[in-house]
Amino acid sequence: MDTSSENPTHAERHEPGRDRDAHRIVFQPFVEFATREVRGYEALARFEDGRIPPAHLEQAEAEHRRRALELRLLHSAVTAAEHLPADMIVTVNASADTLIAPELGRPFPAGRRWGIELSETSALPPETDLLVVCHAVGAQLLLDDVGAANACEEWIRTIHPDIVKIDRAVVWGAAEGDPLRSAELDAFSRAARDVGATVVVEGIETTAHQTTAVSYGATHGQGYLYGRPGPV
Predict the structure, then answer these.
(1) CA dist list (Å): 197 to 67, 163, 165, 194
(2) Res 4: pLDDT
(3) How confident is residue 11, by pLDDT bands cut at 50, 70 and 90?
(4) In what helix (H) or strand (E) does residue 198 lie, and over which residues does it extend?
């Protein structure tokens, strides 16, 4: 989950009449370990009030408007991605509820690969093949932050995603020798390979993190070692 924020002034945070969900889109690259070449970008929201994205989503959830906010962010990301190279996949974040919503339609323009990162806090809808649903709207399916919240090995083996993104806490712990995190990294990587999914490890900030990820079979990474989120 993206937990980055900005720091507005007191006046900006409390100005009456402001759009409480006003935002801009930034992009963070992910790379292929073998070549260190950028293979795609994740679209991330930065809210003008400075609060982190999960805070906005949690408030929207409480006010029964999370789907509307996620759809707004998704459409903003698609528009902002127009300036990125067409050979790069661009991924956006959404919950399962938004993924199966009729309002989603087919939001992705032709001409590039798109991906939807399934939120780790999602409740999986019963008797719904999310991979089929995602492909039907023109995107690949990614499991986001596996190892955090609800995202687990069972999700990988049940959903059969195109891409598995492993949470940063898992690789950080494994790089420090934590046996539990090492076992998780191994299990998630094995499960991803078993279902034919690409493994992306998030939170790569040091060469030790990268070395650990590679040693467990990951092929791609995302994190400050390769680039911080920023405008295109």
Answers:
(1) 27, 5, 10, 8
(2) 66
(3) very low
(4) strand 198-201
